[in-house]
């Protein structure tokens, strides 16, 4: 057992955040501690440049696996903490080397503490001399088997040769809260993930149209959110009863405009709920040109009914790239389960790809949509999805 084994957590883009940096680090430390709360043998050192987690080898892979998904972490290095003294540094560098397996090495030294002597070049020279003398390893600066980093910081020195890439982005909770339109398809869970990675907490809104849509859709949403709970521990899901509005649209409006009008209704409701829930933006999985309702003209006509910020993280993504992310974040297998959504069930044969607002408004005036919207909002149900609860509908 090594009692100087630590994980060194490197911060992502929060390095650029100047005076907010303290808050960012505080939030990241809180998120990390919360995600690792089941491990009671970890000790944390939250410093200005890194967070250090004292760990023992038995749980290191499990802990890294969790850290990899926490937004705001650029990289995790497995380090030995040393005294700021050359012999202790050398002893710990030797722990990184396997004289049987490794053929070549390279040394890199960073001296954050400029008062420390000797200088980086001399540190490298002294350590390299020891390695060359005591092992069979040779230097290779281009493609070494062991790329060894030595960092001299104020509180201690650290040596390491293994780093794991983190999720990047900002710590969850530093960028406010957004309302994600969650459909159960492939796109919207990916859009949700991208927001969380940016540090934005999410709540989700779903438009349900029973009996046209089946209860299975709701179970699918629970499962999707359970997957996303890996990134946000508790996620609120607001389920809006949408059947009456859909029926009214199909009784009063031409089929070719139905999707445009339906989506305008969804946006109106989303904005009202956004205000109730104190969210700052609406998020959805729209991608330019993917379907008739996602041409720029359609988006413009649909967007005109509200003034809130609408973020479309996938606007410029190809479907294959969205699918790749959904596989990576493990929502894909749930998303492809075959349940119909209210959008797909009513898809007209010839939807307008360039619906103008002036064409749509007269159709909307044919029925009292505002009272239907008010009723739908009043009957919206809210549930909290977290890993430790079983949801029932
Ligand atoms: P797919 O992944 O197959 O494209 P989708 O859910 O993205 O499915 P679209 O018709 O492309 O389906 O819808 C665009 C966006 O509108 C969705 O990404 C989602 O954000 C939102 N949306 C669609 N239907 C619903 C719904 N029933 N409830 C909430 N949001 C919805
Ligand atoms: Mg889509």
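^ Assign residues to that structure.
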């Amino acid at each position: 057992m090594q009692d100087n084994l630590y994980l060194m957590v490197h911060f992502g883009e929060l390095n650029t955040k100047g005076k907010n940096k303290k808050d960012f680090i505080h939030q990241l430390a809180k998120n990390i501690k919360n995600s690792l709360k089941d491990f009671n043998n970890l000790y944390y050192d939250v410093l200005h440049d890194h967070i250090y987690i004292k760990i023992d080898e038995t749980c290191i892979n499990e802990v890294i696996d969790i850290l990899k998904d926490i937004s705001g972490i650029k990289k995790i290095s497995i380090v030995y903490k040393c005294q700021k003294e050359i012999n202790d540094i050398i002893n710990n560098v030797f722990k990184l080397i396997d004289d049987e397996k490794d053929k070549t090495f390279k040394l890199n030294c960073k001296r954050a503490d400029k008062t420390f002597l000797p200088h980086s070049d001399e540190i490298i020279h002294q350590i390299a001399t020891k390695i060359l003398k005591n092992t069979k390893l040779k230097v290779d600066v281009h493609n070494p088997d062991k790329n060894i980093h030595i960092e001299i910081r104020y509180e201690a020195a650290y040596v390491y040769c293994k780093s794991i890439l983190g999720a990047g982005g900002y710590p969850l909770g530093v960028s406010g809260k957004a309302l994600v339109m969650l459909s159960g398809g492939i796109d919207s869970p990916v859009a949700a993930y991208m927001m969380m990675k940016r540090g934005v907490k999410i709540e989700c809104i779903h438009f349900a149209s029973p009996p046209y849509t089946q209860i299975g859709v709701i179970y699918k949403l629970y499962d999707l959110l359970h997957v996303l709970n890996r990134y946000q521990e508790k996620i609120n899901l607001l389920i809006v009863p949408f059947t009456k509005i859909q029926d009214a649209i199909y009784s009063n409006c031409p089929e070719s405009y139905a999707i445009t009008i339906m989506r305008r209704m969804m946006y109106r409701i989303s904005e009202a709920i956004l205000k109730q829930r104190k969210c700052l933006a609406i998020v959805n999985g729209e991608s330019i040109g993917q379907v008739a309702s996602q041409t720029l003209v359609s988006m413009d006509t649909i967007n005109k009914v509200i003034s809130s910020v609408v973020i479309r993280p996938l606007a410029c993504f190809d479907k294959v790239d969205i699918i790749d992310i959904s596989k990576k974040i493990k929502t894909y297998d749930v998303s492809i389960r075959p349940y119909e959504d209210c959008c797909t069930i009513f898809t007209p044969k010839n939807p307008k790809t360039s619906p103008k607002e002036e064409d749509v408004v007269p159709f909307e005036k044919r029925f009292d949509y505002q009272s239907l919207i008010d009723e739908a909002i009043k009957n919206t149900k809210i549930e909290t999805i977290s890993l430790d609860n079983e949801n029932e509908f």
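The chain has a mean pLDDT of 93.
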